[in-house]
Amino acid sequence: MPKRKTENKRLDRSQKKPEKLIDKNDVRIDGRKLDELRPVKIEVGVLGNADGSAYIEQGKNKILAAIYGPKEVHPRHLALPDRSLLRCRYHMAPFSVEERKSPAPSRREVELSKVIREALEPSVFVEYYPRTSVDIFIEVLQADGGTRCAGLTAASLALADAGIPMRDLVVACAAGKVEGRLVLDLTDVEDKGGEVDLPLALMPNLNGITLLQMDGDLTVDEFEKVVNLALDGCRRLYALQKETLKSKYVVKEAVEE
Ligand code: UDP
Q: Does domain 30-246 have CATH number 3.40.50.1450?
């Protein structure tokens, strides 16, 4: 009897890490070159009820970002007299990963919410809206490594979509080291089987890094190379971010009958 699809899926999930993540010709397990990004698709204004929103697919990652605000702060005692209060919630749906994730916020999600907020805050003119709050929601629908970066890229676009005045966009990308090779935009299996993962967020016009984290060890020379690789990835993603924003405002000419 042929196996049902779900059974096959379960078999796939129990598969161990592949023996080699990069072959002798420097081709990665998903067919990418060492310095190649995963295919990326971004949309803005995808949610009708949020003030701003964006959706990103980066490889198998699927992430929604939504903005509410600037609006009155609740609870009110949190309001800041001189600026807007930026809040962020990064959340992974229970079905976003292979092993069901509890819907309750994990320590990891609390940390990611904090670092993402801190990475976005320098780009926002928070002083324009005292006593208000701007809430950023990042919902990971499907995860495959690099979700903090893809979530950040989408959240910055969602802020712009909400019409919030900003100094620059923020764009993020990870690079790292896998089986001794320096690689861009690691997938989950590369992250877990590799030596180093270094997520980085950049304000491309101000040339400011707003997030830099690293798991693992690198030499100083390798560190420089990995940072430059991540910066290069950010600049490529930034071009896509700009294109996506512009496409929202293109006036489509009416086709005459
Ligand atoms: N992950 C998972 N279960 C979890 C948390 C993470 O399977 O509860 C996977 C998921 O694919 C995620 C990856 O581990 O993208 C890497 O997680 P990390 O903490 O490095 O953050 P990310 O690379 O997504 O920013």
A: no
Quick count: other Cβ atoms within 10 Å of Cβ 206?
13
What residue type is 102 in one-letter code?
S
Sheet harboring 132-142: ordered strands across? 40-44, 52-58, 61-72, 132-142, 85-92
CA angle, residues 102, 108, 114, in degrees to nearest 5 = 125
Q: Output the pTM of the full model.
A: 0.92
pLDDT, one tens digit per residue, over 113-160 is 999 999 999 999 999 999 999 999 999 999 999 999 999 999 999 999
Pocket test for ligand 1, best of 38, 92, 106, 147 (most atoms within 8 A of CB): 147
Residues having CB within 6 Å of any atom of ligand 1: 97, 101, 108, 143-148, 188, 191, 197, 199
